[in-house]
Amino acid sequence: MLRDPRDANHLLLKRVAAVGEREVTVMGDRRDHSTDSRYFGDVPIADVVGRAAFRYAPLGRAGRVRS
After folding, report:
1. Tens of pLDDT along 16-40?
2. What secondary structure, in 3-state letters, does the chain show?
3. Distances from the Cα of 16 to the Cαs of 26, 60, in angstroms?
4. Cβ(37)–Cβ(15) below 8 Å
């Protein structure tokens, strides 16, 4: 979960694709229909406000996400 770089009052749920020293590259799950780092660039790590704790799909891998 991260602050939308276009409007900090909104939050986005994206997959972290790469981590740099001070920023992350984020990607949407539906690349043809997602607004992500390809559109707005890398996001400062300070704008990341949450992380995944539980996976619900696929069912065979459902459960807590390990760090």
Report:
1. 999 999 999 999 988 889 899 999 9
2. CEEECCEEEEEECCEEEEECCCEEEEECCCCCCCCCHHHHCCEEHHHECCCCCEECCCHHHCEECCC
3. 5, 22
4. no
Nearest residue to 47 via CA among 25, 62, 17, 32: 25
Tokens of 31: 């690349």
Backbone CA torsion sign across 53, 62, 17, 1 = negative
Within a 10 A sphere around the Cβ of 30, how many other Cβ atoms? 8
Locate tokens 């602050």: which residue?
Answer: 3
Whole-model pTM over 0.85? no
